[in-house]
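User: ok so my PI wants both of these folded by tonight, can you help

Assistant: No problem, let's get them done. Here's the first:
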Amino acid sequence: MDFRKRVRMEILRLLRSKIMKLVIMLTLICPILGYSLYQPATYGTTSSVVLANPVLAGGLGGAFVFGMYTLYEWSRDEKARVKVLADSIINPLFNSGVKIVSLICLAFLTTVLTAIVYLPYTAVKLGIQFSVLEYILSYGLLMFLTVVMGILASASIYQIVTRAELSFIIFLLLILYSLSPWVEERYMLRWINPLIPIYSDNFGNTLLFRTSVYSRIFWISLLLGLYFVSLLSVRVYEKTIFASIRKNIKNKWLLTFSITFITTAFLMYTNQPYVDQAKVELEENYFSGGDIAVATSNKEESKGNKNLKLINTFFNISLNTLKGKTVGKAIYSIVNESQDSQECIINLSPGIKIDSIIVNGKEIEFIDLKNDYGYGNRDIITELPKDKNINMEIKYGGTVKIPAPVEGLLLGGEITSDYIYISGNELAPKLLILSDEINPIEGNITIPSNMTPVSIGKPVALLSKNMDGTNTWEVFNESGGMNFFAADYECMEIGNEFFPVNFYYSKKHSEKFENWNVEEILKSTIEYCTKTYGKLPYSKELPLNLVMNSAHFQGGGATDNLSFITESSFIEEVLNDPLKGANASEVIAHEIIHQWWGVHRFMMDMENPEWTSEGVTVYATYRMMKEKYGEEYVKKNYIDVWERELKNTNDNFYLRNPKYLTQLPERYLYNLQMEFISMNIYTKVPLQILKAEELVGGEEEMDRILKDLFSKEDTEMHPYITWQDFLDACGLIESQLNL
């Protein structure tokens, strides 16, 4: 019988089945669980709540119920004791193929029906942020393909073991494996629950779709390979599994497909392109005496060369947003202060490859150490001639990879058609040269013409409008280092000529920002910090740039004259409630305050890792909100929160029993202990400053102390302010601030 005709007949038969109708109904209901019970994507954006989580729940639930139905269909003839008769009428291999294709067709039909049912609600909730393409991709990649994998997995398992009960147990174990903490941060190893940390509302989710496509293809290749292996195991003439394999292996197509798909899956796994190969190992934990997981190099971390002096860096780079790739050239002016040839270590992002290095007009050789380490680092070694003045030109290109220690967040640079964030050695290779001098960096960056760029340093300048629909922009930073954003930004200009501030935000927020109090938040924070701590050195030539960044970054930050604030801080539910504790207003204020504590003055102490700019910034935010909302508000939403979180941290089982830390999976341990450190920084330190405030005589005296420290030049470890600097300024000793 014709295969397509047989598939049509099988689909019609299945649609008449009451059990199949129940399977379809259950799958339709599954996304509802994503609104409350199953929320793997971080709450913080509307897209995560109304799109990502429901689709992920639909994929998980749909794969399970379709998998169960597949086991039912495959075991039905066996239980009815008609399998021998059925196999004599129709080839079991042919019949298996018909059933698989039919179930996949019904899975597609069910997914389409589910997408149609939830479309109106999703579109209304997202409003202007709704994207038809992302909606289709979400249901296609995260639900339909997951259901297909459930069908393939259960069918393959049954055809190998031929027992429904045992097949169910194995299938369930396979699901639990994908949901276990051992693979929760490995995007390649999660088959039924693809890794989606958070959906962006405003800047697209192309990076997440890229990793999802790759992992889906990997798993489908692996499961197709397993399926064809299981076809080799299909029992013939009531023979044993091994006798059946010897019989079926004569079918060269089955063997060829099995080897091809399994080999494809193996090659995809070993050559996955999105996460680097940095190792996560254990080192001594400073607060518990146990171990802590950190990102380390496969080899000893490289050191710089003190005999070389970098004068300046210029780069020219083009960003291909469709492919997520870079092509660039960097030129370095170097002085060799010795009279000998010198080893030069070039640090670059692991996904970037060097094509050639030309020194003073001659191409030279180099060695790629392939020693991925830390957060996005790899070293190249080359030897520079003994010439005093050296001009080095490096041609490079590739993709920006996610650092392995933050794979679970899929946190890294992004180059997509909706959003660009790229920085440091992703833009241009960095020369590891030991020098106390700060060297300027300048460059040209080519991006699509529909994107507005924002950079650290001087305002970007348009160099050219190109014939291919791109624009080339000039960037420059006197203090070295480079961070670059681009998206569909609009700019809100606030401040004045003495303190200019530009706030870049998504155009999708234009109408909302007119009704919200965002401009007032920015102005009041700047006024408060200028009055309390001092004026910052900004001007028309070097304005303060505030940038809304993608929720994929999972937070904000600040460096030089650039502060970035996650879009999660601007969701309507938060901004419309100004009296809600630790709301977006405080988050925005917190990131701006980092310009004082974190950019222009930085807290660091080699003997007290908890003493960072974050703790002081949290305290400063508390003080500002107390002045604005009163003592009762900050007691409830700051002090009580700090005390509760610190108590919860100290009560943690693993902190009280550090001997058990080494028994945890390394990646789980890494996340757990980073959470401990974060809690101490964000809760313990502000509580210590609050206690110091009481001991020194009150808020005004603490304001004076911090203002003096902000302008103090002769600190213990200038330009940093150490824990001892703070204690000395307060006239206290450490034991007085024990909590």
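One down. Here's the second:
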Amino acid sequence: VNGWIYLYIEGEPYERGYQHGYLLAPEIIDMMTRWSNVIHNGPIISWFASTESSNYDQVSEAWWNFCRRGIDRQFWYRFPDEYKKEIQGIADGVNARGLKFRDREVDYLDILSINEMYEFMTRFDNRGNDFHPLKELYAILRDLIPGLGDEDKFVNSFLEAPPAHHCSGFIATGNSTKNGEIVISQQVLCGGWWYPYYIPQRWNVIMDINPCEGHRFQMACPPGYIWSDENYYQNEKGICIIDTTCPQGLWKKRGGYPMAIRTRTAAQYSDNIDEALYHIMNGNDGIWTAVYLIGDTKTGEIARLDLGLYTYQVWRTFDGYYWTANNLKSDYVRAESNGLGVKGTISRVLQLFLPFPTGYEYYTRKYFPADRDLKLDEQGAKYNGTIDLDILKNKIMVADPLSNEYATDLKVSDTYLMENNSLWAYFGSPGGYIWDMSNFKDTLSGVKDVPPMGWSLICGLPENHDVELPLPKHNVPSVGEDLIWSYYFANDFEGRNSWYANLISYDDVVIGAALDGKVYALDTRYGNEIWSREVNDFDGITHINTNGEIVIVSWENETCALDFAIGHLIWKNKDANHICSKPVFVDNKIILGSRHGETFATSLDGKVIWGRKLGKDKVYLATQDNKNFIFATVGNMCYKLNLEGDIIWSYAADGTINSPAVVYDNVVYFGSTDTNVYALDTREGTLKWKQTTGWSIINTPAVDNDVVYVGSMDNHLYAIDKKDGEILWTFGTNGAIRSSPAAYGEYVFFGSDDGYLYAVEKESGKLIWRFAPGLTIQNDVYNYVTTSIAGDVIADNNLVFMSANGMIYGLDAKTYEKAKKTVSEKEGIPTETVLFIVLSLVVIIFVTAIYLIVSKKKEK
């Protein structure tokens, strides 16, 4: 999914470990390979490193064996049996796939080692041993790397290397948030010789674990890990936990539980904040010194924990916000971690004379806010009282210097999402920077530049979900694609890979509302710009629709109308704000849906006619062809409204509905995160049928004749019989399908997160052609590098239009739409109307009969 892998595992420890290892075997081998190769980026060693060197693999293997021995001695005996069994299951699952690591099978020690590399490197990079393990490493490598130099110089080069911990976190609740809910986010930044881009490129798994004991929970993690390591957790009891590590203080050389066990246990077994605090601190071995943010959605309480080995401090509140950016606030923990703060004091003095940051704030005895602390506090105060998911995603957590070129991902969730085992996740730099690996290509094998991927909604599978998906096929296009034109709107923006435009077409014009905040009107035949206008300065998505006279443009701060022909601003309405979906036209009204559960109706000149509150979630809108009614999907509800906004009926799905419905032949169709496609009778709101897919559905189905076409995040497009809901055929891709399909002519067009636009036959699902606007996922381990096609596809006038990679494209559809005799869909005629018509006919017949009788009598 857009750079991420979602993995659901369940059951006993060994059983769920085996599932994990078997399903992610290639990625686990890749993770082990990266950790074994990272030594070539180490101090001094990098001077001699070359991927072309004959002893490159020997050095990697020597380093990995060194790590295995050290980690075995320091950690294995401290792991509870439950997690030992899970680790063994992972190793056995990898081996069951028949994959090898450096020409041998994987064992439990390999899996333990990748899990404990972060904590091992903390001990490794800090002083404290009479015979430091770096001396052992030097002895191992000096014969493999001629010219390694003096032992003391080698050891000191590692001990003096910059630290690797750079993370940011934020949590808010009560009167600080829009609806009083808890919102939480955590971001990772890379740095240091052993945590360059090369390592977090592989940290792209959202793990959903449903254990036989404890609570179901989700975590962001690398493949093969039993704990997050990024330390983002949320569980089904509403407990969320994040942390950022700080300058390392005291730790135990023997005994105690490592952070891996303490945080995993807290996520799996905590029902409340007190239990989470207990598990995090119980048996603490001191690594890492860290700041934790914890929330409980059941009570709305949040907490901050500063934790050293012997000291800690806790803050708790039901109203407000906390943040963390690797900087301790507690005087007690700072004293334990930094001692007298000599390093910080010296760095603070040097800061007076140096043009670059010295980072003194992290090492002083007294707390001083660093740049990220200042920004998080500033952003929290600025948006206090209005904070929600969108504010976190688009404002607070992406402000510089938080989402700089070192940012690797960002996770965001709230009370509602956590209750549904779901979260939003961004892979890559949310600030729009490309992970430039050019400096590592000679030292780290298999590096790739990684552009930002954009936001993805990751939804947990329903309990006891059991669907058998068809085996993947190698689909070969029948013909090549034919690109007619392309229009570039990204203006050389580095993060263009995640940029797309919402598209609509009318007559011979295609209009795109792009992520650069502008609206573009283009000629459909040649792609020439007719006009463009900047409207959105919020950095979020812009939603549009047109009736051929005006273009309605809605976004976070307002709704406005542009002249269809020339793009001039006609009116603005700031009351119709926080709009989250495509506006619709009905009965000379404009209907708008907000992300706070509100539905607005305005006149064509922008005056609000009415507003209705339908819930707290995003509102998506649809209408019938005869435009007598409105269908709104909000949360897990589908509503039918009349033109005054009154509810006629409602229907509750088993999951959240994250896209507009579609109405066809008196049936409303929509998909849900519960994996089902629903078909409801528009007159009564009763269920006609529902069909299960492999994972969430977050797009709008397309209906053509007797078939419903819908894409699922299980990587498949489904063709479903619209009469009874039976699956007719499926088409598999290498990525989730989040864009809505378009049925046109003989084909169905849709985009996938594997980077392709597909054209497949309506009747059979046979692949006809495909088009890649950028990066694509192939059958290898680089499934985190792609140019996802997230925007909806539209087809008209023998052309297909799509947007991705900062471009709008027009392609030859290679099919055409046959002329159809359309009949307006009508609601059932009310009984009163039928009776009136029948009685009128009876009266007319009766009067006519009397007239004829009287006329005949007169003739006689």
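The first helix runs from residue 13 to 23. The chain is about 20% helix and 30% strand. Good luck tonight!
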